[in-house]
Write a structure and sequence with these properties.
Blueprint lengths: L3 E7 L4 H10 L4 E7 L4 E8 L4 H10 L9 E5 L11 H5 L6 H12 L3 H19 L3 H10 L3 H13 L2 H28 L7 H5 L5 H20 L5 H7 L3 H13 L2 H28 L7 H33 L1
Helix pairs in contact: 4-7, 5-6, 5-8, 5-12, 6-11, 7-8, 7-13, 7-14, 8-12, 10-11, 10-13, 12-13, 13-14
């Protein structure tokens, strides 16, 4: 995780508190400068990779809620000379601060025009790949992956007990999936002779392997976001693909192939449940939680409900697979 610069505009009497907090949490550097003629001070704290979240939480505790104060978090490309990493940093990778993760994940949860356009485009790409039995084109639709963001946001919001983020992510999921299914259903009405495609039929079956793949991919997606290993996200998008089964579900509905539509729907639900459940466990294991005690209590209830819901759905799907095979 990179070094970050925290900037705070503070009153003169608050400066000593921020300096003490920076020293307590082993900040690399702390400097104070004057802003304008009003006596405000600009506190600049250079935070190393270790204990950034604890430092940020302590700084937020010192903010006066009656004043419009904010902490700006700035990425730092390099520091000369570079700081010597601690033994703890050598042993483990550090997670990005919760607030930085929240800003990034919340952007991916919004059902704005760009998101809806990406859903439409990826549905078109997925449909062409499925209809033409073209694996490369199907993978291209997987990589676009507009539905992955709202699902990661849903798990993250549950970990924080953030009802606003949960509601935004759930609504984006409904809009995205509904748009994809409706578009593919229209294609099914116009092109009702493509349901024999091998790529299409492959999205109408669910088994234990597909569930294990979705669980592992969802966990990898959450972990790559937290540790900023962005190169892993492409593989995650392919492993926990949501658009191809959604497009298959819509097409089978449009052509009246109801048994195949049920299979595609089961695969879609399994992938959604798996990515949310595994991401939830990753956020829980990595200690993602709100800053205040009252918020943490709400987050515990939200996490328990979310894990129970996705686990119940997954158990139902596993039971359906078992009884089909027996």
């Amino acid at each position: 995780m990179p070094i970050r610069l925290f900037e705070i505009v503070a009153q003169e009497g608050e400066v000593d508190t921020y300096i003490a907090v920076a020293a307590q949490h082993k900040a690399l550097d702390c400097r104070v400068g004057m802003i304008g003629q009003g006596g405000d001070r600009l506190v600049r704290i250079l935070a190393g990779e270790e204990r950034q979240q604890q430092l940020l939480d302590a700084l937020q505790t010192g903010l006066d809620p009656t004043k419009p104060a904010r902490i700006a978090i700035l990425p730092v490309e390099a520091v000369v000379p570079p700081p010597e990493p601690s033994e703890e940093e050598r042993r483990s990778s550090q997670d990005a601060p919760r607030e930085e993760l929240y800003a990034e994940i919340a952007r991916g949860a919004a059902a704005d025009r760009t998101f809806l356009l990406m859903v439409i485009l990826s549905t078109v790409v997925a449909a062409i790949g499925l209809f033409e039995d073209n694996v490369a084109v199907v993978i291209a639709a997987m990589v676009i992956a507009p539905l992955l963001g709202p699902n990661i946001a849903l798990a993250f919001g549950s970990a924080l007990g953030d009802r606003e983020l949960i509601g935004c992510a759930a609504l984006s999921n409904l809009k995205g999936i509904g748009l994809s299914v409706a578009g593919a259903a229209i294609a099914g009405l116009l092109l009702n002779d493509r349901f024999a495609s091998a790529e299409l039929l492959a999205r109408t079956r669910i088994d234990y392997v597909s569930i294990a793949l979705a669980l592992a991919s969802g966990a990898a997606g959450a972990l790559s976001l937290m540790t900023r290993i962005s190169s892993a996200l492409v593989g995650v998008m392919v492993g926990v693909a949501l658009l191809p089964p959604a497009a298959t579900l819509g097409y089978m509905i449009g052509t009246g192939q109801w048994p195949l539509a049920i299979g595609a729907g089961e695969l879609l639900v399994a992938n959604i449940a798996c990515v949310n459940l595994s991401a939830q466990f990753v956020f829980l294991a990595r200690g993602v939680k709100p800053r205040t005690w009252l918020q943490r209590r709400a987050a515990q209830e939200s996490t328990l409900f979310s894990i129970s819901l996705w686990t119940a759905l997954l158990l139902l799907l596993l039971a359906a697979i078992y009884f089909r095979r027996s």
